[in-house]
């Protein structure tokens, strides 16, 4: 099945909208879903007109997580060869999440309805998460006998801390949008899906209006500093700014301030 059966991709100015578009299956994630994401985000990365990506979904759920029917094909004979092939498959699924975090453009998740299992793993890899009040989250893998293996255990502690991570991932319980806001998993809560999408669009427009190389540099430095520590991160940002400053966009920002007008940034 082609990726067009799973995703709808639209561009609006400098914003790319990635919509999960299999509502009849509650946007569950099967092999094609995971395999398609790296190519999609590589396209976003290469496109200089794309400055921000927003992920949203059609139907009643953002995603109900892993397609358990498709996952049955992962069952095998228990041989060493089968286990090695399973390991490789898991790594491929991980890359379907990693590509979101690795994308140089900021990624906003606009979450409504159920965001279960793989959905929470996926949104952990996004930069900013907004949700509507009907959103329900879960790192549910312990309830189906699996150790969550596509990013939640690695990323969630940096978002909500170890206390919340251990409770949520060990129990596999559902948590509400209100809880998600309280713990800092999401940063804004909306009454319904319509206002959620409008809020995500407003944020995306705000980010898209900023100097794109600077915004991308901030994302890069945050991720590098998280993975390497404070002092390596400081050295890294010193190198980053020595490569970026001055830029045409920086000069435009100064001139716009002096001329009392809105700056127009071109990513140069």
Written account of the structure:
- By secondary structure, the chain is of the alpha/beta class.
- It folds into two domains: 3-208, 2-enoyl-CoA Hydratase, Chain A, domain 1 (Alpha-Beta Complex), CATH 3.90.226.10; 212-258.
- Helices cover 50% and strands 15% of the residues.
- The protein is built from eleven helices and nine strands.
- The strands form two sheets. A six-stranded mixed beta sheet has the order 1-2-3-4-6-9, with helices on both faces. A three-stranded mixed beta sheet has the order 5-7-8.
- α1 (31-46) packs parallel to α3 (80-102).
- The longest helix is centred in the middle third of the chain and has 23 residues, at 80-102.
- It is globular.
- The N and C termini lie far apart (39 Å).
- The mean pLDDT is 94.
Structure, briefly:
The chain contains 11 helices and 9 strands. It has 268 residues and is an alpha/beta fold. It folds into 2 domains: 3-208, 2-enoyl-CoA Hydratase, Chain A, domain 1 (Alpha-Beta Complex), CATH 3.90.226; 212-258.
